[in-house]
Amino acid sequence: MKSLLNSRFIFFMIFLACAASLGYAFYLEYVHHMEPCVLCWVQRALFAGAGIICFIGFIHNPQGVGRRIYAFLGLIFSILGIVAAGRQIWLKFNPDNSGCLPTTIESIFEDNPFFGAILKAFEGTPECGLFQGDVLGIELPYWGIMLFSAITIVLIFQLVRSNPVRMIFN
Q1: In this predicted model, what pLDDT tens digit does every residue of 38-69 receive, in sequence order?
Q2: Bridge-partner residues for 92, per DSSP?
Q3: DSSP code string of 25-51
Q4: Under a CB-based contact definition with an 8 Å cutoff, are residues 63 and 163 in contact?
Q5: Among candidates 14, 41, 49, which has minimal Cα distance to 25?
């Protein structure tokens, strides 16, 4: 039981979840030739960010304040991931039919300054509301929001816990 509550183990499991998500996304893109939309790219970047932070946390194995810093940084990425996946789900039910929006991540960054492009990417495009594929009958944006939500819950636990072994066995 003690090893499952170790912050190193938790950070590594989050890293594996992010890596598996990215691996599956690239599998769909390159093997099944599914073109990712703008919000898919945003979610990939956020999974990568959370995964990298958690991998560094795994390597560093911090305790106390260090663990909380890594958890907070990862939490920023996971909350933004919930926003991006939620926006994609929202677009499924409220399609934006304006055809003048940029449709690729490259065109967004070519036409806007960096921070403007980031904000524009979070808005999504009309293609973001289309069917993006599914796993076990659940569409990919729903998987994204579920995984980002699970990561958020675990990172909040990492952020607020004191000594979990002492809390459980006392």
Answers
A1: 888 889 999 999 999 999 999 998 888 888 99
A2: none
A3: HHHHHHTS-PPP-HHHHHHHHHHHHHH
A4: no
A5: 41
